[in-house]
Design the sequence.
């Protein structure tokens, strides 16, 4: 008998995978975690029934949340990652020799441990002394944090349940306090195809916290709608002004992608104009 995984993106559509091997299923204190292998995308990590990572296309998300800000910032020596328990974002950040310290704040230790076991090509080497992992609620961390960072990357869950607080104004205000003067923040911002109202709600919620905001897109096949957005926030960054070359060995992000990633479909532009 064939086993199929199904994730609904709305009441009538979603994504399915034919499961080859079921590798892990369990509950942490925070969420349900499943890891299985499928025919076309390799190993898959889901949290509470939502796809977070697949071996085949994970590089797109991790490269796009990381490299634009890392190349735009003049000297990204200290980087804070909120979430990112699969390790992919940290892997990309550590490709820059300018980086002296990476702090990854992940609430769920089990996600980290399982990612190390089942996704060794995604999780960065723990031998790198620049990486520090703190098991803590990201909201609490930035509320009490006194350290300053050059880049903050919010590699967080979708805004449902306990994760809703990660999309509130207070959280972004506290993130701003954790940034250096020329700091840049990037957050994953959901699908502009199936979650456009969520993007609008986020932009309304944080309006005025930062002087500058920029939405950019990437094609990610296994995410809702196949199209994903990221939001870059800061005070005076310039998207066309980069300070270092594209790292070697990337699979999606390049100079042309960087210059074209802010080109938005008309329906997205019109939606954003409603809140400006």
Sequence:
């Amino acid at each position: 008998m064939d086993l199929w995984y199904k994730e609904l993106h709305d009441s009538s559509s979603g994504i399915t995978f034919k499961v080859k091997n079921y590798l892990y299923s369990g509950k942490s204190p925070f969420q349900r975690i499943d890891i299985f292998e499928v025919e076309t995308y390799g190993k898959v990590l889901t949290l509470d029934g939502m796809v977070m990572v697949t071996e085949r296309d994970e590089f797109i998300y991790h490269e796009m949340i990381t490299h634009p800000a890392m190349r735009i910032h003049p000297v990204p020596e200290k980087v804070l990652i909120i979430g990112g328990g699969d390790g992919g974002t940290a892997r990309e950040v550590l490709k820059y020799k300018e980086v002296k310290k990476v702090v990854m704040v992940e609430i769920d230790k089990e996600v980290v441990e399982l990612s190390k076991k089942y996704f060794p090509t995604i999780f960065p080497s723990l031998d790198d002394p620049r990486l520090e992992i703190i098991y803590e609620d990201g909201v609490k961390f930035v509320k009490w944090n006194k350290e300053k960072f050059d880049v903050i990357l919010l590699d967080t869950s979708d805004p449902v349940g306990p994760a809703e607080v990660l999309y509130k104004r207070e959280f972004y205000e506290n993130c701003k306090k954790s940034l250096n003067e020329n700091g840049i923040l990037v957050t994953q911002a959901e699908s502009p195809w199936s979650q456009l109202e969520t993007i609008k709600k986020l932009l309304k919620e944080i309006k005025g916290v930062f002087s500058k905001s920029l939405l950019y897109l990437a094609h990610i096949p296994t995410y809702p709608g196949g199209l994903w957005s990221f939001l870059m926030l800061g005070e005076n960054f310039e998207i066309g002004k980069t300070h270092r070359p594209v790292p070697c060995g990337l699979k999606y992000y390049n100079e042309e992608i960087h210059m074209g990633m802010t080109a938005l479909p008309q329906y997205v532009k019109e939606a954003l104009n409603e809140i400006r």
The chain has a mean pLDDT of 94. Helices lie at 58-72, 88-93, 109-118, 138-144, 169-177, 196-205, 255-260, 266-273. Residues 58-273 form a domain with the Rossmann fold fold (CATH 3.40.50.150). Residues 58-72 form the longest helix (15 residues).
